[in-house]
Amino acid sequence: MAIVIIRQDGKIPEWKEALSAASSHVPIYSYLEEHPKEAIDMALVWKHPPGTLRAYPNLKCISGSGAGVDFIFEDKEAPLHLPITRVVDQVLAQDMSEHVIGVILAYLKNLYTYKVDQANRTWKPLPYKRIEDYTVGILGMGALGIVLAKDLVRFGFKVQGWSNSRKKVETVKSFVGQGELPDFLGTTQVLVCLLPLTQSTAGILNKALFQQLPKDAFVINVARGGHLVDEDLLEMLDNGHLSGAGLDVYHKEPLPISHPFWEHPKIHMTPHYASVSDTRSVVPQILENYRRLRAGEPLLNLVSKERGY
Ligand code: GLV
């Protein structure tokens, strides 16, 4: 019995230390060190190198260490018949909410423009926008979307959400399925994508969708690069239909230096760091799932293979 951590972002020591400190009796290994492959029954993964999970003949669970598990399904050599879990965490949701609120306020109060003006020593007051005049539409009302919706309501925004099933959040209008998408888009001035990336949501942020937003809408993608059709965003920004975009995620990360997003004056980029799993907050649910796995009890935050999230 043991857990292996597989990730390529330099954070294995941090996760190993946090897991070991919280549970002295479960051996925790990095996939990069010498370790007994047949002893591993849980793999804790984040963007693991495809194929690495095949090394573990007795693996019983793939535990994704973030909210999104799309990278697991993309690994064609992963043992996808095993249970897959993801992280559902209040701190992760709160961090995401704070990031999105920051981006929206920077847009409403012209902070992006003033940063450029400052670099050019330009003094140019601009009319600002008010929260009370804005409707934010959230695509994806899951664990992250609902926390954001509640926070935006507290700030005074009008808020609506679009999801697969009807959501009951006080004062947040719920739109469901393809049939209600046009009405949702038609009244959304700031669109936030927080959808899981699946076959049915890939490329959803495209020209046809953008055209249904009111003129001057602002788009925020903090989900996955695969949701966005990059050329369609550029076209709709350049033709003046959209007024700007805040992006945290990209098709290829790091974004290649030749990509047009880097220099686009209406695109405001962050490096896929809107919200990252905090080991202190997440480790207890990983270890609880490990205990449940060993005890044959139902796992927490199980991913549905049919839905892909
Ligand atoms: C971050 O992108 C996550 O999925 O947690």
Structural write-up:
- The protein is of the alpha/beta class.
- The protein folds into two domains: 107 residues, Rossmann fold, CATH 3.40.50; 180 residues, Rossmann fold (3-Layer(aba) Sandwich).
- The protein is 32% helix and 18% strand.
- It is built from nine helices and twelve strands.
- A seven-stranded parallel β-sheet has the order 8-7-6-9-10-11-12. A five-stranded parallel β-sheet has the order 2-1-3-4-5, covered by helices on one side.
- Helix 1 packs across helix 9 and helix 3 packs across helix 5.
- The radius of gyration is 21 Å and the shape is elongated.
- Bound molecules: glyoxylic acid.
- The site of glyoxylic acid has 4 residues, from loops.
Protein topology:
Layout: E1 2-7, H1 12-22, E2 28-30, E3 40-46, E4 61-64, H2 70-74, E5 84-85, H3 90-108, H4 111-119, E6 135-139, H5 143-155, E7 158-163, E8 172-176, H6 177-186, E9 190-193, H7 207-212, E10 217-221, H8 230-238, E11 242-247, E12 267-269, H9 279-295
Helix pairs in contact: 1-9, 3-5
Bound molecules: glyoxylic acid.
Glyoxylic acid binds next to loops.
